[in-house]
């Protein structure tokens, strides 16, 4: 009781103090009225864009749930010395917004493999499986046969467009893999990761499918070690055994890729110097693998060795947009998810901010009247945004009000994850701890799980209005395909016969 009374009086103190930190112009009602009037006018002035989408620019924030989205907005503003809550991210400017339901056929809360199969291939499936229907059993090669489903990247390529994948993870990771691979297990990165039975039954690893399935013009991310024979030293980390080649079949897929592209201008690069030297005007194919596995977190990136997601997005678009028939590009901010698994909101939010800068670059390089740009997440994470922090308080900070145990807590917390710590029956005292790194969690798990609430889908450009309402996640692939007239449903091109 006493504690509650203390907390309530503290709240009044906070409110009194908080109001003095508000911005003066915001105390004037006209500030809010005129801002709303401007917004209203821009919404009234919007015209439906019913063009056929020449290009599809698809940004996927892996694990970028709505809480992450809001918190990243605040961080982006705070990094520019704004209070942050009022900051407008590039993705905030998209006119159409909907929600996608992310459950998989077998689980209430999905993973990136099942969700990517839904939004890229248009079919919901089981956890851990990629580019196959739910008739496939997780990890069972035999059940994969005949149940393959293809992706919008393939439909776009078949329609004569150029296609690409850009990610901050290994290019064999679940999200990019769903554009080109069919596999009963997302973990079959190289043949060394496959059980003998699966190989005997004729299944192939994801890396080899990167070469043998759809002909992809631009491939940018990490994942060198799955491409080269076992024991091949990594060019960047020759002394680190764990980064050496993994393949047991002796194939060097990087060399094979280069010889497959003989007669074309095809570049393989593994560092920023060579990447910067790639001239998009003269390049037909680019494969860039900057790390043995996933790329580094943006906050840890060595800018002399690895380009940012803004730079990789720009290079990809410049190469792909030479095709007069247009392009499909997947850009994945893939490590928002991985940072959340580690309970590291600081890293996750910096990844999401970097993705927003890549989106801005994408809009700068394309025209709204011919490019359908989508931003969405595959699934969310159990991160919550709680307490009563002051306006403009660091999004990575602590609650000004303490809890019933008379200890503060972080504004961002996790339902589960490695941030759970109880010693001698009490929570850790974080009064003097920098909370930038691991946020508190209610329940101890080695890795935070995913969460199951809907994710936002943002759209801009031709047929953006198709991306509204509360939809099943697999609808997204069908709506993108309709907008661009790729795949089976060609009705939109008949309606726009002259195009
Ligand atoms: C924000 O403020 C700090 C400290 O005053 C300054 O060093 C930094 O350059 C500022 N950043 C921006 C983006 O204005
Ligand atoms: C980048 O890669 C090229 C090709 O392997 C190599 O010659 C060059 O030394 C590398 N640059 C750096 C800075 O490692
Ligand atoms: C898009 O707008 C540009 C001018 O910015 C124009 O040249 C082009 O024809 C337009 N494309 C379509 C499909 O309307
Ligand atoms: C727990 O309590 C014991 C005994 O009071 C003390 O020695 C120990 O340091 C405490 N552990 C932590 C993590 O506070
Ligand atoms: Zn995950």
Query: In terms of quaternary structure, what is this?
Result: single chain
Element order, helices and strands? HHEHEHHEHHHEHEHEHEHHEEEEEEHH
**Cofactors, ions and other ligands in the entry:** 2-acetamido-2-deoxy-beta-D-glucopyranose, zinc ion
Number of helices: 15
Architecture (CATH level 2) name: 3-Layer(aba) Sandwich
Taking the sheet with the most strands, its summary is: 10 strands, mixed
The CATH class label is Alpha Beta
The computed structural class is: alpha/beta
What percent strand? 5-15%
How would you describe this structure to a colleague?
The N terminus is likely disordered. Helix 12 packs antiparallel against helix 13. Strand 5, helix 10 and strand 6 form a beta-alpha-beta unit. The chain has one domain: Alkaline Phosphatase, subunit A (3-Layer(aba) Sandwich), CATH 3.40.720. The chain has 499 residues and is an alpha/beta fold. It is globular and about 65 Å long. Helix content is 31%, strand content 15%. A ten-stranded mixed β-sheet has the order 5-6-4-3-7-1-8-12-2-13, with helices on both faces. Strands 9-10-11 form a three-stranded mixed β-sheet. It binds 2-acetamido-2-deoxy-beta-D-glucopyranose (4 copies) and zinc ion. One 2-acetamido-2-deoxy-beta-D-glucopyranose (NAG) binds next to loops.
């Amino acid at each position: 009781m006493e504690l509650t009374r203390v907390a309530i009086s503290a709240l009044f103190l906070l409110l009194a103090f908080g109001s003095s930190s508000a911005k003066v112009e915001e105390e004037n009602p006209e500030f809010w009225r005129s801002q709303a009037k401007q917004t209203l006018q821009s919404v009234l002035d919007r015209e439906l864009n019913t063009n056929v989408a020449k290009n599809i620019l698809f940004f996927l924030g892996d694990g970028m749930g709505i809480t992450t989205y809001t918190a990243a907005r605040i961080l982006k503003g705070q990094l520019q010395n704004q209070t942050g809550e009022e900051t407008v991210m590039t993705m905030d400017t998209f006119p159409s917004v909907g929600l996608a339901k992310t459950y998989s056929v077998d689980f209430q809360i999905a993973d990136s493999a099942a969700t990517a199969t839904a939004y890229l291939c248009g079919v919901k499936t089981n956890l851990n499986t990629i580019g196959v229907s739910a008739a496939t059993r997780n990890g069972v090669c035999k059940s994969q046969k005949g149940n393959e489903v293809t992706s919008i990247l393939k439909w776009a390529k078949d329609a004569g467009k150029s296609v690409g994948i850009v990610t901050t993870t290994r290019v064999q990771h679940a999200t990019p893999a769903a554009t080109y691979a069919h596999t009963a297990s997302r973990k079959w990165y190289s043949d060394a990761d496959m059980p003998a039975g699966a190989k005997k039954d004729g299944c192939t690893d994801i890396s080899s499918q990167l070469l043998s399935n759809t002909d992809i013009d631009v491939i940018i991310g990490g994942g060198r070690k799955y491409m080269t024979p076992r024991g091949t030293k990594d060019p960047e980390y020759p002394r680190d055994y764990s980064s050496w080649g993994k393949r047991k079949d002796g194939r060097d897929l990087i060399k094979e890729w280069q010889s497959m592209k003989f007669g074309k201008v095809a570049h393989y690069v593994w560092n920023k110097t060579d990447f910067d030297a790639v001239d998009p005007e003269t390049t037909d194919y680019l494969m860039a693998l900057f790390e043995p596995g996933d790329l580094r977190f943006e906050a840890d990136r060595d800018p002399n060795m690895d380009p940012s997601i803004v730079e990789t997005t720009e290079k990809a678009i410049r190469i792909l947009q030479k095709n007069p028939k247009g392009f499909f590009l997947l850009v994945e901010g893939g490590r928002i998810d991985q940072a959340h698994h580690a309970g590291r909101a600081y890293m996750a939010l910096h990844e999401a901010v970097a993705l927003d800068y890549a989106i801005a670059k994408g809009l700068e390089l394309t025209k709204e009247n011919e490019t359908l740009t989508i931003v969405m997440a595959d699934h969310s994470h159990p991160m919550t945004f709680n307490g009563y922090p002051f306006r403009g308080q660091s999004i990575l900070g602590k609650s000004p009000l303490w809890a019933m145990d008379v200890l503060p807590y972080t504004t961002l917390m996790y339902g589960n994850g490695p941030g759970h710590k109880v010693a001698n029956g009490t929570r850790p005292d974080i009064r003097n701890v920098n909370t930038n790194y691991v946020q508190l969690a209610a329940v101890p798990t080695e890795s935070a799980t995913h969460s199951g609430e809907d994710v936002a889908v943002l759209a801009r450009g031709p047929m953006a209005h198709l991306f509204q309402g509360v939809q099943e996640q697999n609808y997204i692939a069908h709506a993108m395909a309709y907008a661009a007239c790729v795949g089976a449903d060609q009705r939109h091109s008949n309606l726009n016969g002259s195009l």
